Amino acid sequence: MAAKILSVDDSKTIRMLVAKAFRAFDCTVLEAGNGEEGLAVAERERPDLIILDVTMPVMDGVTMLTKLKEHPELKRIPVIMLTAESGRDNVMHIARLGARDYLVKPFKEDQLIGKASRIVNLPARRGPAAAAGT
Amino acid sequence: MSMFIQNLDVTAFLRQQASDVFQTMVAPEVGPASNPDGLHGQERITGIVGLGGEQVTGAVYLHLPLSFAEQVTRQLLDLEGAEPLDEAAVNDVTGELTNMLAGGFKSALCDRGLVCAVSTPTIIRGTAYEIEMIPDVQRTSVPLSAGTHPLLVEAHLKLG
């Protein structure tokens, strides 16, 4: 079954870049605009991987990750944190909260795919959609 | 003259960070500009991300000509030249680029013990606006260019 990947970011640009990065692979990319929406989608869709921004309005990524890890049925979903902050303290804080990995913005598509493919199976998409890049 | 914060050359850092952000995301070469007033009189867009902490407060600004911001947005989102461009998309891209700049700067400050948080980005558009400083704020302006496009990165910081 194709992997479900949930992209949680308040920036539509980043969500589009994440979706574009996974276009060539047989997977479904779901989107949410903040942590609160992200938790709701995670509960409903049970994604195989969450790509989670840190700084967001309504509920930030750190709060969403904390709540996710407290949730008995969602706590095992692996999370890659997307952060614009590469500082030591920030990275250690993210690791302590239980994120599987992190990616510092700005990032290239292949960096994201490299990290995601270590966590979920990403076979190449077949058929016209792959050829059209959609 | 550049501002130094515990061996951090703010001008050099912002120049490198801007270059990294643009080259990674949209690939144009970004370098120092010979004309510091290159944006004067142009229709432009400014992304602003605030920095707040006990020992440092301020903001990072990214000023772009609107035409360049639109070009970057089309490139990032894979939009053809004929496709209409949503104003919100240009705002979002400009905000996100500013966020990347400010996030790197925030990390550099935090690594030097100046712990602070960043705000979500806000946007200003127009042709004839200036950003004034309140007292005790130090301003670092870094004029840059991406091809023929002038850019300006600024940090306004209040320490202590």
Largest sheet properties of chain B: 7 strands, antiparallel
Provide a count of the helices of chain B: 3
Oligomer: heterodimer
| Overall strand count of chain B | 9
Bulk shape of chain A: globular
Largest sheet data of chain A: 5 strands, parallel
- DSSP strand count of chain A: 5
Percentage of β-strand residues of chain A: 15-25%
- Which bin fits the share of residues in helices of chain B? 25-40%
Rg of chain B from C-alpha positions?
A: 15 Å
SSE order of chain A: EHEHEHEHEHH
Query: What does the radius of gyration of chain A come to?
Result: 14 Å
* Overall pLDDT confidence of chain B: 90
Pair of chains with the largest interface and how many residues each contributes: A-B, 23 and 27 residues
Q: Major sheet of chain A: order of its strands?
A: 2-1-3-4-5
Q: What do we call the CATH homologous superfamily of chain A?
A: Response regulator
CATH architecture of chain A: 3-Layer(aba) Sandwich
Query: What is the highest CATH level, the class of chain A?
Result: Alpha Beta
Structural class by helix and strand composition of chain B: alpha+beta
